[in-house]
UniProtKB/TrEMBL annotation:
Cited Gene3D superfamilies: P-loop containing nucleotide triphosphate hydrolases (3.40.50.300)
UniProt protein name: ABC transporter ATP-binding protein
UniProt xrefs under PROSITE patterns: ABC_TRANSPORTER_1, ABC_TRANSPORTER_2
GO molecular function, one term: ATP hydrolysis activity
SUPFAM superfamilies, per the entry: P-loop containing nucleoside triphosphate hydrolases
Keywords: ATP-binding, Nucleotide-binding, Transport
Disordered: annotated span: 296-325
Residue ranges annotated for the ABC transporter domain, each copy included: 12-236
Amino acid sequence: MTSADGASRWAVEARGLGKCFRRRRAVQDFSVRIPAGAVCGLVGPNGAGKSTLLGMAARIIRPTEGSLRIFGSPVDDPAGLADTAFLAQDKPLFPQFTVEETLRLGRELNPRWDQEAAERIVRSGKLPLGARVGSLSGGQRARVALALAFGKRPRLLLLDEPMAELDPLAAHEIGGLLLAEAAEQGTTVVMSSHRLADVATMCDHLVAVAGGRVRLAGETDELLAAHRLVTGVHLTEGVPAEIARHTVVESRTTGRQLTALIRPHGPVEGDWKTVEPSLEEVLLGYMRSPAAPPLLTAAARVDGPHDQEAAGSHGQEQEDEEVTA
Ligand SMILES: Nc1ncnc2c1ncn2[C@@H]1O[C@H](COP(=O)(O)OP(=O)(O)OP(=O)(O)O)[C@@H](O)[C@H]1O
């Protein structure tokens, strides 16, 4: 779908996307949209397919099946190449280069290079331009890598575990820098992370994957509002009927105490305490319960109400539920 000014509303649009490495299916039946302008967290356990998804969007891994569009154009359209920047997990930089030489390389390789933005990012960390990259701390190297990425002026910035090796202080600083620069440049950000607290504070959208399939996708607020954490005393075996009538993502009993993560289909009857769960509680619930049905908000679904191209789309959307909360 395109907006009135001709730009695509969707930064990323995957339909039935799949990737097979020899006989191993890393991603399957993946149908999700991420709107332009979102800061989207990509979460899931080790081996879930996060790096493979980012690699396909970054054009370094070729999908085996399905379609993937970036700002409305097929991912393999060379015209879109300059629109995307990808920062791999190991943040490949040349250790012998100085910060200044690294930025110069960025300028020479990228026709749309924005030296002012790149220098602003480096200077705000008080990094000396003459320092060798190999002598910098992990946080400082992350800053140089982000300067290189934002210097490209990408419309879509793909980050694989950008804070993985940073201490909490450096992660906070780099997270703030990332959000400020994304807002300044209007960049859509998709970042994989195992740090759920960072995802909760930084991301307005979320895609959770497990076993190469989407488990949750959409606006973080809407996804949270669609769930309730139910607790109470339960003396018999199994999930009580008044809870089982809702979609139960996960239920656990500790002694006499039952805790259930549910997607309510109306009020929860009986003597149960219900609260809105934290993002961490929702994500852990889905990770621990691979059989729980996935949930995609209307905006994340490729057959959502804004879709004009849904005919013939395939994927797991047939079995998903819509968020009604
Ligand atoms: N080049 C490859 N060749 C073969 N198998 C691969 C390759 N890359 C990834 N895989 C497999 O695909 C699956 C998904 O891997 P991927 O790296 O995308 O997961 P991830 O969610 O990024 O994991 P992590 O959180 O550990 O980084 C895994 O089973 C992995 O072993």
